[in-house]
Amino acid sequence: MDLSTVLPDTSDRLAAACAAKGVSFVDAPIGRLAQHAWEGTSMFMVGAHKKDFVKIRSQLEAMGTTIIHCGAPGTGARTKLCNNFLAIGSCMLNAEFVALTQGFGWISLRR
């Protein structure tokens, strides 16, 4: 089981290498912040065949509260990438909103 945040093609290569050896592969990148990991409330986006997901679900539940089965191996990495883009985009949009409203004189960040 790979819990790292990697490019989808990395997960695809690992899944293929495991399949060639007759070994199951699960990609389950961790979502949320380090604080959530310490609290045991992480989110996992899981790419696994159904039979493998059933086998490892309890292990992930011991570390997190939100376990999402995204589909076959590799889909966890793809979902994590989309999740990261969404989070980054949201931060950028918020920053632009603050800049716009400051330009209108609506918001001042100075106290």
Number of domains: 1
Class derived from helix and strand content: alpha+beta
Contiguous uncertain segments of 5+ residues = none
CATH superfamily: NAD(P)-binding Rossmann-like Domain
Give the rounded overall mean pLDDT.
95
CATH class: Alpha Beta
Put simply, the count of helices is: 4
> Would you report the number of β strands?
3
Structural account:
Helix content is 54%, strand content 14%. It is of the alpha+beta class and 111 residues long. The chain has one domain (8-103): NAD(P)-binding Rossmann-like Domain (Rossmann fold), CATH 3.40.50. The mean pLDDT is 95.
Write the layout of secondary structure elements.
Blueprint lengths: L7 H13 L9 E2 L2 H6 L2 E6 L2 H12 L2 E8 L3 H29 L8
Parallel strand pairs: 2-3
Antiparallel strand pairs: 1-2
